[in-house]
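Translate sequence into structure tokens.
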Amino acid sequence: MEKLNSSVVAEFVLLGLSGSQELQLFFFVFFSVLYVAIVLGNLLIILTVTSEASLHSPMYFLLGNLSFVDICQASFATPKMIADFLSEHKTISFNGCIAQIFFIHLFTGGEMVLLVSMAYDRYVAICKPLHYVVIMNRRTCTGLVMISWAVGLVHTLSQLSFTVHLPFCGPNIVDSFFCDLPRVTKLACLDSYTIQILIVANSGILSLSTFSLLISSYVMILVTVSFKSSAAMAKAFSTLAAHIMVVALFFGPCIFIYVWPFTTYPVDKVLAIFYTIFTPILNPIIYTLRNRDMKAAMRKVVTQYLKPMKISEMPLIVRNPLY
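Result follows.
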């Protein structure tokens, strides 16, 4: 990594969410509980989808992959942020900073495409039900997941190509809880305006195009359902409203931070919490707890793995006659 830049900055200082000692203790407890809930909740979804034969369908296959991405997305910076709440000096090495930038764009770019794939699955199921099995076969689902990772990889490599060669020779303070690309780029020891425009264009094309595809698919679903019964319309609207809420909470901060004119605001690091921490815990709630089949399967899995042993299953204890 040393060959890639002429930097004299060996590490960056992360200011985190707050300088208050009392608030940092509260944040440590709050985000620790939240992170554990994210990991356990999404792992339960993955375990349920893979172990229950009744859930071996395209919709749940994509949902399981979304849960995996959510775990990755919540893990690239959250554990360090939690540890930093108990540390007086919040620093990260230059290589660690570049790694965070790489992973955040890999996972967010992949999740954007994966959300579009899930919306496409629902569009085919509702608007073309007779062709659903043919269109959404195993090969198609695998291809959609591979495309999501490929898009995320291309997106993050293109972002790094704009950033990794920048010289960092002066200020090294990042006003965030992780190496956020807009804030790190502004620390470069040269006029990075052109690079900032390229970064904005790169993120803007991906964010706005995937967001437009999502909204278009939801509109087409609602239009299709509107020609059916009012009950079907109400059910579809209730389901899509929850999905749109997740999409808004995920895409809204991304678009504001990366597509807005390249100016950083104090609220940016608060918005970053939404797509790095809150969205990974909202997805299990929205996509599973509102699904009757998924809730039943999850209860079955939990019962199967956590139920206490019955008396008949307990090992037989033979008392030694000498005692």
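Note: The CA atoms of residues 223 and 233 lie 9 Å apart.
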